[in-house]
Amino acid sequence: MNPKYLAKKIVFYIGSFWVILFINFLIPRLMPGNPVISIIGQLSQYHSISPAEVKSLYQVFGSPHTPIYIQFFSFVGEVFRGNFGVSIDFYPHTVLYVVSQSITWTIFLFGIALVGSFFIGNYLGSKSALARSSLGDKSGSVVTLFLYSFPYFWLALMLQVIFALDYPVFPALNAYNALKYIPGFNLGFIMSVLKHLMLPLLTLLLTSYGGWYLGMRNNMLITLNDDYLRYGKMIGMKNEILLKYARRNAMIPNLTAFALAIGGIIGAGVLVDIVFSYPGLGFTLYQAIVGEDYPVIQTVFLFIIIGVLIANFFMDLLYAHLDPRITEE
Amino acid sequence: MLGNPSGSFLNRFHINHESALITAFKTLLYSGYFRFGMFVIVSIVIFAIYGVYFHPYAPQRIFAINLPPSSSHILGTNEIGEDIWSDYLVSILPTLVLALESAVIALALSVTVGLVAGYYKGVFSETMSFIINVFLLIPGLPLAIVISADLEASHLNISNYGLLLVSVISLWAFGARTIRGQTISLGKRNHIKMIQYSGESNFNILFKEILPSMLPYIGYILTSLVVGAILLQAGLLFLGLGNETSFTLGSMLYWANNYGAVFNKEWLWFLPPGLTITAISIGFGLISFGLDVIANPSLRKFKALTKGKKM
Asked: A263–B138: do the CB atoms touch at under 8 Å?
């Protein structure tokens, strides 16, 4: 790989990381008044507040008595030490502990959904482009557009009502049956996890394959007009071989849409987690919102963005590997 | 006298945007997606306006709870005792207006940033491009959730403007990227170069040449932003972030979900708002799909590689 391109990408992602860190630092501090005092006032109606909790709230919202640049330095220091304070709802557990409980489930669910929707969308999109203007293409596009514009949480609710309440094929809530199985490498637990995965995964696949589908359909239509394909056709190359080339070339520009797709699937995933009480980052975020656990809210947000950054960095490397032309600008 | 280049000479490099637009619009009308999307949206808008004026009861008037549908309560009453039909009717228009407002403001921001970042060269526009790219990386819904949650913490009473603000912040980068890319490619065209050499001001080139030729793109971005805004706002309201007491379809869903309407199968309470949000989103989605075909002509003309052969 072109070292200059690699260096450029690394610089971009390190720069983005700092900007995102800064945004994460800035948003709570832009709020007027002193949110910490009002949060403490509200929470102390229900339970006592320890000094550690107060300290981690000030770590999020900033203390009005410390200059802003000193706050930023200490914020960065704490982030690099992995110290995000203590959780308000799960005191005395630390924020890192609370977040780490849910991160595996998120990687599991989002990973499968992301890869699955990529392949389903690209496959169906290229099929649709080849059969352009046929009944299959038209109905495929309409159904895809329909699902693509569906509110995620609404689809999740509908699937939950139909497949978990009316016809109880799949369980409605949680990631596994905690009453029956202990997490570990045994068949019962794995089957339970897979069963509970079905509805959240189905929701994510249905709402997120559309972007790939429409992108692939467009790219394929453009690629099919390319001269090399016409030439290949003229000299009598087999259709299957030509289509293999066309498909590969059409898929490449689609990879650039990964940033948007990851963002979309995370947005959908947060709501899907909540509807199905799936114990991923989205559900943790929701619990934290309900319980006004601001240290957890900020940390989940930071983790989500860092995950997106890392995923995009690897996608850029993959893209450069597949299409070396872009590294030679 | 040499003077400035004669008008007639330069005019050859100006594109007649009006006739191009008329052609584009005619092509648009042939698109079934566009027509159907327009039909859906116009019907919903008419229905929404009807709803604001002709709802049978004041939306927060309390009746007996859980009444079945009858002639006096078309969809019955909910667990709070409100007439669901009235509640639903008054909620449609504010939902539409809020999404449209957010989309228009986000569009204005993304057009400005996109044009500047794409047309000018130098540190400033490089910085703009960098900011666009960073914001593209930040997932919209989590960003919106965090900002809304922080707004709630500070007990700011800004009603729906909070939702508008967070929607704009999370959505603008998508449009800015498209506009920027398009501006870069147009800036390299010969007719734009020619106008630049003639000494036309950059402002005029940007707003009289480049911007009008991007109108189909802008329509596409606007409609996509409306879809994004309506889904984002419904999601946030459903989570209870934002002003749940406002009359919007999202907050209707929030209350329905909060009272367990889904698990109790009170269909009449949560089906109408959900279906309406879906219909609005699909309507705008179809319009944007139709506009995309105008913006990318290669999607229109097509000589099939395997014409007549089924693959």
From this structure: yes
Q: For A182-233, what is each residue's pLDDT tens digit?
A: 777 777 777 788 888 888 999 999 988 888 888 888 888 888 888 888 888 8
Evaluate if pTM is beyond 0.90: no
- Would you state the structure tokens that stand for residue A235, as one six-digit string? 């000299």
What span, in angstroms and rounded, lies between the C-alpha atoms of B34 and B284? 9
Q: Which of residues 64-123 of A touch B (CB under 8 A)?
A: none
Residues B296, A284: Cα–Cα separation, whole Å: 42
Among candidates B262, B227, B278, B26, which has minimal Cα distance to B107? B227
Instruction: Say which of B33, B241, B278 has its CB closest to residue A151.
Output: B278
Q: Does A145 touch chain B (CB under 8 A)?
A: yes
> Does A253 lie at the interface with B, CB-CB under 8 angstroms?
no
DSSP A164: I
Q: Which two tokens stand for residue A159?
A: 């699937």
pLDDT tens sequence across B88-136:
899 999 999 999 999 999 999 999 999 999 888 889 888 998 999 888 8
Assign domain A95-324 to its CATH superfamily.
MetI-like (1.10.3720.10)
Long-range contacts formed by A287-291: CB under 8 A, 24+ apart: A287/A89, A288/A89, A289/B145, A289/B149, A289/B239, A289/B240, A289/B241, A290/B240, A291/A88, A291/A89
Specify the domain boundaries for CATH 1.10.3720.10 within chain A.
95-324
